[in-house]
Amino acid sequence: MGIIGSHLQAAAIVVVVMVMALMTDGASTSKVSPLTVGFYATSCPSAEFLIQRATQAKFNVDKTITAGLLRIFFHDCFVQGCDASNLIKSTATNKAELDAVPNLTLHGMDLIDTAKAAVEEACPGVVSCADIIALATRDAVVIAGGETYAVPTGRRDSRVSLASSVNLPGPGFSVASAAAAFRGRGLDITDMVTLLGAHTVGGAHCEFFYNRLYNFNGTDGLQDPSMAESLATSLKDACPMKSVTSRYPVAKTTVAIDQGTEFVFDTSYYHQLQHNHGVLQIDQELTQDPTTSPIVKSLAKGSATHFSSSFGNAIVKMGNIGVLTGSQGEIRRICSKIN
């Protein structure tokens, strides 16, 4: 599971998701974006509208789609670049990223397929799956209450997807380790803290905070002393010790990371961290580390508009990682398989 969106799935997240990932050496970080806003203005002028319409329809029946899309985007960009390689299904001769453990609970693939079908009908072979991910993610953030931001497009889709290339750190990573992973992708410490704000619409499976409840720092029965007692009580109710054997299966209980407005894109995540209500260890440690604590305070103190604007800038920056453009890669006709 990636740090951003931890388990940006259902009511879940990133990642985590994630999101903060150790990347493979193959993906480069663009200093100057080779992408442009309005890339499809002539070649497929209805593309962004069709994607937005599909995203709204999905949100109407499943509010967890915002977290799901954020996690898909993070898990895509942080492996070999923003190229939709994590949408490709495995074949008899290749185990793809989608079957790597951190991606087993990705949520929202059906929306990507629906949006892709709509744009293929309007403009066959023009709009990439990678751009659909980026645009649908923006739309879902806005629908959930965030501010809009311009999404540069022009990405092409990868023809390579390897499960072995997926190496995402979990929420138990230290702030320093996570920051190093971000720096390796051209994202600074402020970008990291801002992108972790995706957890405001996210959730996490019990296995990713179980040790904080029952086995902190490897001590049987010890609870993380930094966790507010009221939060610990509610988490223990949702994730009792008896339900854990060695590790939770991927489909087990999910709890909201934002305990107040879990489907609204706002600043409550940062406020809760300041009151020791961080569900994930990496989240709570943001308030304890001197390099990140001032950023958390600033985002909590600022307006929701300020956070949304900052988030838009950071996710656009992330969306430039390792992009394929021009004649690189391809435009997949079906997002789950190479042409």
Describe this structure in words.
It is an enzyme of class 1 (oxidoreductase). Its main location: secreted. This protein has about 350 residues and is mainly alpha-helical. The chain has two domains: about 15-170, Peroxidase, domain 1 (Orthogonal Bundle), CATH 1.10.520; about 175-315, Peroxidase, domain 2, CATH 1.10.420.10. It has twelve helices and five strands. It has helices at about 45-60, 65-80, 110-120, 130-145, 175-185, 190-195, 210-215, 230-240, 270-275, 280-285, 295-300, 305-320, and strands spanning about 15-20, 35, 150-155, 205, 255. The strands form two sheets. Strands 2-3 form a two-stranded antiparallel ribbon. A two-stranded antiparallel sheet has the order 4-5. Helix 1 runs antiparallel to helix 3 and helix 2 (about 65-80) packs antiparallel against helix 4 (about 130-145). It is globular, with a radius of gyration of 19 Å.
What summary fits the major beta sheet?
Answer: 2 strands, antiparallel
- Please state the overall shape, judged from the principal axes of the Cα atoms: globular
Beta percentage is under 5%
**In total, how many beta strands?**
5
End-to-end separation: 28 Å
Keywords: Calcium, Disulfide bond, Heme, Hydrogen peroxide, Iron, Metal-binding, Oxidoreductase, Peroxidase, Secreted, Signal
Cofactor: Ca(2+); heme b
Protein name: Peroxidase
Enzyme class: oxidoreductase
Compact description:
Pfam families: peroxidase (PF00141). By secondary structure, the chain is mainly alpha-helical.
